[in-house]
Amino acid sequence: MKWFVGLGNPGKQYEHTRHNIGFMALDRFADKHGIAITQSKCKGLLGEGHVAGHKVYLLKPMTYMNLSGESIRAFMDYYKAPIEDLVVVYDDLDTAFGSIRLRYQGSAGGHNGIKSAIQHLGTQTFNRIRMGISRPAPGSDIAGYVLHAFSKEEFGRLPEVLDKTSEAMEHLLTNPFEKTMAKFNG
Length: 186
Hints:
By secondary structure, the chain is of the alpha/beta class. It has a single domain, classed as Peptidyl-tRNA hydrolase (Rossmann fold), CATH 3.40.50. The chain has helices spanning about 20-35, 70-80, 110-120, 140-145, 150-175, 175-185, and strands at about 1-5, 40, 45-50, 55-60, 85-90, 100-105, 125-130. Helix 1 crosses helix 5 (about 150-175) and helix 5 runs antiparallel to helix 6 (about 175-185).
């Protein structure tokens, strides 16, 4: 079993924003594998299916970004899901747009969704796929930047980024995290 949690904010006004790239990645993976993320469960929207012979759960917390850990914890407790099988997919300001970085531990780095996950999981050690959204120009409002839609150029490249993330998710189903890191980081 593997459970992927994509971070984002519910609601139409956030649908195409940088902060919702985690939701977009789960949607791309779900579409590719015929999984419907429609069950209202564990303070989120949940989908389940089988991919590459493995049971897969896809969770999109509906708690808003700053409370994402509540949904992650609710899923973990309800399904008795091992933290080792968790992969959190989210936006990262410190990674260039178009790149993804896999990590298995670390601080929140200022990301409130990850801060909430760490708080509710009681550890900084869990698998992550960080999707680059790049930093705004110096002096720009970070909150405004992450809650704003992608630029026209970025939006044009977004399908390629979502496909790369989906490929990394697929790779994690049949390979150790370290091997997937080596393949997709850089």
